[in-house]
């Protein structure tokens, strides 16, 4: 019996048609992919994904499971928070996923490595989250309006900031398309 797999983010499920329409030669980057729940969902839909995370064990598990299911996943072990590092420099992606992760120095890199017309799905915790649970470190929590402000010059397809009861959390989510020209 296989262990129950974590469900993909609802935002990802909702915007799957737009992701399918956007993916081209550069594929999808699942930034700080963790256990790979979102990457596995896209791979199940035959969408190529590069899973980026610092944890080799998690990447190996994603890779092995994907290969066993006939949808090989590309993995990239990377320290996204290495001081002075620019891990996204010189890279290009059609779609970038960022879920439950925040490292502000990466925002410029995300903006640059998404190809024109590319799609960004970004969802992470706001500072209100600290009142009910983890994370509590302000470095990992968005300020009000911060996520939207970073991408306000892009086409905003979805924008939410607030709370949810299942699971109980405070977060902001954004789906934005980079201008084509």
Summary, kept brief:
This protein is of the alpha/beta class. Helix content is 25%, strand content 29%. It has a domain at 10-125: Vaccinia Virus protein VP39 (Rossmann fold).
Describe this protein's structure:
There is one protein chain. The protein is α/β, with parallel strands linked by helices and 181 residues long. The chain has a domain at 10-125: 3-Layer(aba) Sandwich (Rossmann fold), CATH 3.40.50.150. 25% of the residues lie in helices and 29% in strands. The chain contains 6 helices and 7 strands. It has helices at 10-14, 16-22, 37-44, 56-68, 107-113, 146-150; strands spanning 28-31, 49-53, 74-77, 93-99, 114-125, 155-165, 168-177. Strands 3-2-1-4-5-7-6 form a 7-stranded mixed sheet. Helix 5 links the parallel strand 4 (93-99) and strand 5 (114-125). The longest helix is centred in the middle third of the chain and has 13 residues, at 56-68. The termini are far apart.
Record the SSE blueprint.
Layout: H1 10-14, H2 16-22, E1 28-31, H3 37-44, E2 49-53, H4 56-68, E3 74-77, E4 93-99, H5 107-113, E5 114-125, H6 146-150, E6 155-165, E7 168-177
Parallel strand pairs: 1-2, 1-4, 2-3, 4-5
Antiparallel strand pairs: 5-7, 6-7
Question: What tags apply to this protein structure?
Answer:
181 residues, alpha/beta, Rossmann fold, 6 helices, 7 strands, 29% strand
Could you name the CATH topology of the domain at 10-125? Rossmann fold
Gap from first CA to last CA:
50 Å
Binned, the helix content reads 10-25%
**What's the number of extended β-strand segments?**
7
Number of helices: 6
> What's the shape?
globular
CATH class type of the domain at 10-125: Alpha Beta
Give the CATH superfamily of the domain at 10-125: Vaccinia Virus protein VP39
């Amino acid at each position: 019996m296989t262990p129950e797999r974590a469900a993909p983010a609802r935002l990802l499920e909702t915007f799957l048609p737009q992701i399918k329409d956007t993916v081209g030669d550069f594929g999808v980057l699942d930034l700080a992919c963790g256990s790979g729940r979102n990457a596995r969902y896209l791979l199940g839909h035959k969408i190529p994904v590069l899973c980026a995370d610092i944890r080799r064990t998690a990447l190996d598990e994603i890779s092995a499971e994907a290969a066993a299911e006939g949808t090989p996943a590309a993995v990239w072990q990377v320290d996204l928070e290495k001081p002075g590092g620019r891990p996204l420099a010189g890279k290009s992606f059609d779609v970038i996923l960022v879920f439950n992760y925040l490292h502000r120095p990466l925002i410029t890199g995300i903006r640059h490595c998404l190809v024109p017309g590319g799609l960004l799905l970004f969802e992470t915790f706001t500072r209100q989250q600290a009142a009910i649970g983890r994370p509590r470190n302000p470095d990992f929590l968005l300020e009000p309006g911060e996520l939207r402000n970073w991408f306000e010059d892009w086409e905003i397809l979805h924008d939410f900031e607030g709370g949810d009861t299942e699971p109980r959390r405070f977060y902001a989510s954004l789906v934005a398309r980079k201008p084509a020209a």
